[in-house]
Amino acid sequence: MKTIVGIPVSPGIVIGNAFRYAENAINEIIHYTIQKNQVASEWKRFLQAQAEAAEEMDVLYRQLSAEGASKEQMDILISHRMMLEDPDFQDQIKAYLEENLQNMEWVVQNMGLIMKERLMASRNSFLQERAADIDDVCNRLIYKLLNIKRVSLKDLDKDVIVVCHDLLPSDVLTMNKKRIKGIVMDEGSRTSHTAILLRAFEIPAVLGVSPSVKEIKDADELIVNGGSGEVIINPDASELRRHQSAMARYHRRFDQLRSLRELPAETPDGRRVCLKANIEIPEEAVQAAQYGAEGIGLYRSEFLFLSSGQFTKEEEQYQAYCQVLTVMGNLPVTIRTLDIGGDKLLPELMEENEKNPLLGWRAIRFSLSHPDIFKGQLRALLRAGVRGNLRIMFPMISGVEELDQAFALLEEAKAECRLKGQEYAEALPVGTMVEIPSAAITADILAERSDFFSIGTNDLVQYTLAADRGNEKVGYLAQPYHPAVIRLLKQIIDSAHKKGITAALCGELAGDPSAAALLLGLGVDEFSMTAHSIPHIKKIIRGADLAGCQALAEEVLRCTSYRQVALLLETWMRARFPDAGLEKHE
Ligand code: PEP
Ligand code: MG
């Protein structure tokens, strides 16, 4: 038995068997020297791997043609199959083996890199595109050499805990969520989009365990505690019993909390706030309603594009928005325009590899430079607006210029609807996401032009502290309790209230029980979070008086470090809510 600890990002305890998902582990190939007399046996391993890979591709070919795959897909497969048995490719590998005397996995990987470099240097775009084909063929061979099963996360047919180096948000969207009971990952942090999705899908997860993922072998028995961050490898009987009873207690407590569903989020001294849900795909709206959400505070519309991996047409967007509005009835639904870029890449629309994607062509910057895509989305929103209580908001606004441009395009989109004779909502409320320090500092100016604010603390923390939210190495810096962040929050909320607009908060901080009293005291009007967190936050709001929360906020504003803030909040919470640490699960 061994315990490793990572970042707890999605609560719940799960017991199951590890499935080492190796799509990225190919980077970790072991490298060893062989003797001259071993060349023949290494070559034999290559021929064996080549035959197995060829057979696998033939099966895939038959399967795809039976499913009616496109000619383009079939052509790619045919070209990979040809490359696999290309005599020139084989000769190069054999020569490289004889010259370098290294194990076959390493030879294939390095030969692949050399071939790719040659193609990339050719300046011929057709040849450059072939570089990806080399990767595919070489990886297929390496999987065979390493005897790793290449199972897609979409096709899993048994319950597993996925153990891997990293997963992209798009992997999470497309994986078979019924079969994946838990996730353990080397990379990632609490506010990475992968973590946000895992919480949304209620899959217990521990991320950022690097480099300990290596300690877990395929089929090892694991306990994953997504509340405490512990991963126990091959637990003994007493550890299993301890976690089984903790699991039962967690579910009992959670069922009790769910009974608050119909009650208002109101403090004993009468301060009423609104608790809403964040969603990434339309289907989540049903779950939001079940947890008692009073609306959708953030619909991350870009996931519609990321789920399919391609540009989504105006009509499909319109249908998705209407679907959410229908589920929510009269309740307000805030749809954020595309926040593509950063860690949410859509190769079809992103033209180049950026050096600093988080500081680059993301969100409103991308939309403003693609007016056709942006106006298509705005038209879909305007049209859906007649079907429910819809609000729009713009992400990553850095100043008034961007806001003014976005409003100008909104007016153009309305004119286009009129021209086409389409019914649309003329006066949808339009809000600004405040998630960049420049926007926070000029919140008084932005408030003049906004119908509401929604504070994105995930990005506000990232950009205020200059700490990449997806990088576990700087995770310790990304502190929402840093005095700089708290001061910015106060400034944003006060500016909103001075102009008579509401201040919502839709970053992960909104669903953190230890922050709820502070946010209430700072004046947050609306909290929007993963639906599952709503009962936890409601319990705290119903048990904390506003005057006490305001006094707490004043004390927090006098703190000089995030540690001091964290300690103060912990002491305050422990005195009033001794069992609020549900997320920690014992
Ligand atoms: C945020 O930045 O806090 C936010 C809610 O937006 P996202 O997490 O999608 O960047
Ligand atoms: Mg954001």
What does this protein structure show overall?
This protein is α/β, with parallel strands linked by helices and 586 residues long. The protein has three domains: 2-22 and 158-253, Phosphohistidine domain (Glucose Oxidase, domain 1, 3-Layer(bba) Sandwich), CATH 3.50.30; 37-146, PtsI, HPr-binding domain (Enzyme I, Chain A, domain 2), CATH 1.10.274.10; 267-585, TIM Barrel (Alpha-Beta Barrel). Helices cover 48% and strands 13% of the residues. The strands form two sheets. The protein has an eight-stranded mixed sheet. An eight-stranded parallel barrel has the order 9-10-11-12-13-14-15-16, surrounded by six helices. Helix 6 (169-174) links the parallel strand 4 and strand 5 (180-185). The longest helix is centred in the first third of the chain and has 28 residues, at 39-66. Mean pLDDT is 90; it is low at 582-586. Phosphoenolpyruvate (PEP) is lined by residues 298, 300, 339, 435, 456-459, 506-507.
Quick description:
With 586 residues, this protein is an alpha/beta fold. It is 48% helix and 13% strand. The radius of gyration is 26 Å and the shape is globular.
What is CATH's topology name of the largest domain? TIM Barrel
State the helix count: 22
Radius of gyration: 26 Å
Biggest sheet record: 8 strands, mixed
Q: Which strand order does the major sheet show? A: 1-8-7-3-4-5-6-2
Compute the average pLDDT. Answer: 90
Percentage beta strand: 5-15%
CATH superfamily of the largest domain: Phosphoenolpyruvate-binding domains
Distance between the termini: 20 Å
| Assigned CATH architecture of the largest domain | Alpha-Beta Barrel
Alpha-beta content class? alpha/beta
CATH class assignment of the largest domain: Alpha Beta
Binned, the helix content reads: 40-55%
- General shape: globular
Number of strands: 16
Tally of structural domains: 3
Segments where pLDDT lies below 50 for 5+ residues?
582-586
List all distinct small molecules, including ions and cofactors, that are bound in this structure.
Answer: phosphoenolpyruvate, magnesium ion
